[in-house]
Inverse folding.
């Protein structure tokens, strides 16, 4: 199937309230342009350097999502354009994001990445840390940072019941926090292999790469 066919068949299954972020890591500028020409504008990368390089070569009206681990020393490279930072996994990151957003005279939208997977390799903070951040006074002081939701990744497993339970856990946290902090409106969960389950469990932002562009080769 072509990029166009894959894309259109995914779009046809999505409700309006679910935002599709097309994950372009390892993809060429030509492949990204093909999707752009179809009208798509939300793209995600998991490495800051790769995103910065691609952004320079592509139109300005793309909304770039940083979905990977946010390295402190690289925040400055994306601070003038990144649309949404999904991977804030430590309270400490917010300080640097605030500093760089202020320098660029922007208000940076971010998500808190919460660890729901049963794997050491996945980034993310504990549920309690997310609660603490939302309740901390620092958040009020960070005038150039706007926390608009949560992000999470399920365990890489064929056990779909486990995946579903992990998404449920994140949605429960999201609903709890949202009742107190109505500015939260984004729940980023679900990738090519599990986005249908994620949406069932309350996701309103899915990050999809291979189901659009085909299998990735890292060669
Ligand atoms: C690569 C990646 C995705 C997309 O993965 P696919 O399985 O290709 O859809 C989603 N989220 C994050 C954080 C990623 O790194």
């Amino acid at each position: 199937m072509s990029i166009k066919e894959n894309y259109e068949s995914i779009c046809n299954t999505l409700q309006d309230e679910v935002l599709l972020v097309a994950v372009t890591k390892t993809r060429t500028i030509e492949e990204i342009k093909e999707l752009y020409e179809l009208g798509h504008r939300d793209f995600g990368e998991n490495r800051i350097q790769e995103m910065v390089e691609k952004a320079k070569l592509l139109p300005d009206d793309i909304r770039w999502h940083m979905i990977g681990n946010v390295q402190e020393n690289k925040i400055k490279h994306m601070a003038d354009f990144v649309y949404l930072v999904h991977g804030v996994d430590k309270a400490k990151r917010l300080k640097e994001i605030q500093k760089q957003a202020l320098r660029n005279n922007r208000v940076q939208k971010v998500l808190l990445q919460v660890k729901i997977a049963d794997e050491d390799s996945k980034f993310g903070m504990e549920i309690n840390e997310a609660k603490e951040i939302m309740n901390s006074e620092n958040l009020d002081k960070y005038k150039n940072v706007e926390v608009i939701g949560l992000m999470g990744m399920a365990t890489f497993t064929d056990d779909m019941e486990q995946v579903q339970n992990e998404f449920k856990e994140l949605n429960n946290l999201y609903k709890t926090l949202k009742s107190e902090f109505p500015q939260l409106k984004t729940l980023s969960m679900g990738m090519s292999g599990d986005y249908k389950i994620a949406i069932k469990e309350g996701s309103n932002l899915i990050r999809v790469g291979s189901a659009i562009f085909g299998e990735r080769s890292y060669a």
User: Anything to note?
Assistant: Residues 67 and 86 are 5 Å apart (CA to CA). Residues 23, 25, 46, 67-68, 153, 191-193, 207-211 surround pyridoxal-5'-phosphate (CB under 6 Å). DSSP finds ten helices and eight strands in the chain.
